[in-house]
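thread: overnight batch results

M.L. [08:02]
morning all. the overnight job finished for the chain we discussed friday. pasting input first so we're all looking at the same thing
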Amino acid sequence: MTKRNVIIGTSIGAVIVVLGMAWWLGFFSSSPEEATIEAAVEAVSGGEADDAAAEDVASDEPSPDAAAADVATTAPEVDEGITGEWTVQANADATFVGYRINEVLNTIGDFEVVGRTSDVSGTLVADGTTITEVTVVAQMGTLTTDNSARDGAMRSQALETEEFPEATFTLTSPIELGTLPAESVTIEATATGDLTIHGVTQSVDFPLEAQRVGDVIVVVGQLPMLLADYDISAPTAPIVASVEDNALLELSVVLAK
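M.L. [08:03]
and the structure it wrote out:
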């Protein structure tokens, strides 16, 4: 075998080893879809609205007498609005805080990494059509991706979760909605507040979408951020060539009174 063939064979072997390692570590797993208000609403409603609509279409038309009886005996529903204190509720698919970031793997290429935690708490206080207080707290030590080795590096090297276990957002300016949000109608708003990650606090304008779904409110938002703004150093690993400084912070919460 010639020296050239040996070099080629060695290179191919190295690539195969790297690919095998990446596959075993889970780097080729598909990333969760981005947080959207549609996905969150579907998660909390369970498609019940669609099912109910289908049943209504399939059912027979009520008789005139039955319709009259319904009008006579059914009291009008009163919309109590959103005034009061709302608390973040646990929901496996619709309550989480996380991030999206691109990393470059040696000899392989770019991959999107998604980390999330459902260990989220917080409150929202409303007075009429004004949001007066918002606090959201996420436990950084429970952030997970599709790879436990990466998770360990993020916690120990990047986020240093033993020293900085929580990330928080606190509203600093009221949010004026203008009108009472109707149920099942998505509204857009910007929450100005203090975002604290890794012990560093920055004032941010967080774009949000919200929708009332029955007795709950669903809120979803995405905020571009730089790791450097929060003194976060990208974690290192033998297979990782680099990690971008640009990240996307994702928020999805379900609130109830």
